[in-house]
Amino acid sequence: MSSLTIGAVCDPEDEILVAEPYYTNYRGFAHLLGCQVVPVPTFAKEGFKVSPERVRAAITSKTRLLVVPSPGNPTGAVLSHQDLQELGSICMDAGIFFVVDEVYREFVYEAKGPDALAPSVLAVPGLEEVAIVVDSVSKRYSACGARIGCLVTRNEALYQACLCFAQARLSPPTVDQFAAEAALRTPRNEMRANIAAYKARRDVVVQGLNEIDGVSCPCPAGAFYLVADLPVDDAEHFCRFLLTDFDLDGQTVMLAPASGFYATPGAGRNQVRVAYVLDIPALKRSLAILQAGLQAYASYRIES
Amino acid sequence: MSSLTIGAVCDPEDEILVAEPYYTNYRGFAHLLGCQVVPVPTFAKEGFKVSPERVRAAITSKTRLLVVPSPGNPTGAVLSHQDLQELGSICMDAGIFFVVDEVYREFVYEAKGPDALAPSVLAVPGLEEVAIVVDSVSKRYSACGARIGCLVTRNEALYQACLCFAQARLSPPTVDQFAAEAALRTPRNEMRANIAAYKARRDVVVQGLNEIDGVSCPCPAGAFYLVADLPVDDAEHFCRFLLTDFDLDGQTVMLAPASGFYATPGAGRNQVRVAYVLDIPALKRSLAILQAGLQAYASYRIES
Predict the structure, then answer these.
(1) pLDDT in tens, B30-56
(2) Helix, strand or coil for residue A191?
(3) Which CATH number fits domain A2-183: 3.40.190.10, 3.40.640.10, 3.40.5.50, 3.30.300.30?
(4) ipTM reported for the complex, 2 dp
(5) Which of B168, B176, B177 is opposite residue A25, by nearest beta carbon?
(6) Span A188-303: which CATH code?
């Protein structure tokens, strides 16, 4: 869907602003179509909020899109209705589209009630011509290999352009279409029970991480990821060490080095992305392994 | 898969030679990546064979690929081992890749035995560095909505480039992967029984069409399509007439105007593509309807 959006909106050489750290594949999709991803940095100490000032400063005559996932991968940050309004109004003024990747819409932990959802850009009045939502069933229903998504726009010209691309693409997989239709009938309260389980996981992981010496992370308001600072120079090297040179009673943990989510050189080098998708006992055990791994890594670095 | 090939091999502005008439989506895939499709015409009177001379004449410094489906959509033409050798050697000399779309490989009607297959470019010695096969399970197992295909190359640099694209694309649909794996275990003789049914259908349609006044088509050696000349100026107009202004006892036929398969202006205007995928009684009835439709259309044209 992101690829479709870029194809429908951009010409080669155009620029796409993306809140950084960002879903790595945005860069691949853009590159394939000859476009540049321009990162708009966000920071752990600001809870990874997207700053309107930094967005405004990054817009050039080549900018065609601002892309922000909310709830976000990898940071878990959730944009408020007001955030969406502010960013959307900057896009309106600049004459660019505002793409919000809302695939984790249901995964919000502060909102209450069976209909709790992340604020949607579609609900912000006045953005009808510039707001684009990209969505997918994969995250919502743990259907990673399903290839069913959608793009929502009220912009007639964009709709027509997307239709051309969709016709060239023929159809998404048939079986997945039937499965998605059935999945969409999942009762809301069942979904909320699932979200409550994720919230409990998040709380265990956030508390556990912040209790480890030198580790810190903001508490994400949505999705099922977080980005944590580790007391290491090179998180990629540490992640590899965990897999090849370390174990705690025969077990280890695999973390995603966050540098792959950054385009800014050197950014995120001490960070990792954590996906809290296991059950609580496994998460607690993982935290213990990570803590022991960090201690072992400190000795290993001194020795080597 | 065709899209992947173009992405991996071509830069924007590059040219792709395609035997014409061709599968319409090649043009969409190419356009999306900023490349040009350059048609190499083939003709009914030559059984839609791809002429080595015309290929050689069409190659320029911008040409990166020659794409030929065999067995072909929409013509049903099948390249012989010698055809593949000749075309492949032209590609070798020109330093371009030779892409053969072999999705209809099993659908050949002149070869005998349970292992009968269309000649493959992979079996032509000396073409290892330039031959590319694109394939899919969709046609072979009547699984139109399955989104599982592959690209085969022995060229190491191309393989690495394709791997980058594949990693950006993540995975094809999971359920379809399992289904494809099961389908690939279909016994060969079962497949051949299926092919025999298609052959019988082909024979009925080819004979029936050539018996209609003013209609002609070569007998296709493979796939399940054919391109027929009709005694009309504008086949698209005639096809529309069949759907909107004609019926025989409440029934009509839908044909694909062939002009959509041509990039050369004006080419194929009197042609239609026929897919002979129904059972024989339905095909016979369709031929009768087409014959009546052509008669009615002739009167309709004189009157209007």
Answers:
(1) 888 889 999 999 999 999 999 999 999
(2) helix
(3) 3.40.640.10
(4) 0.81
(5) B168
(6) 3.90.1150.10
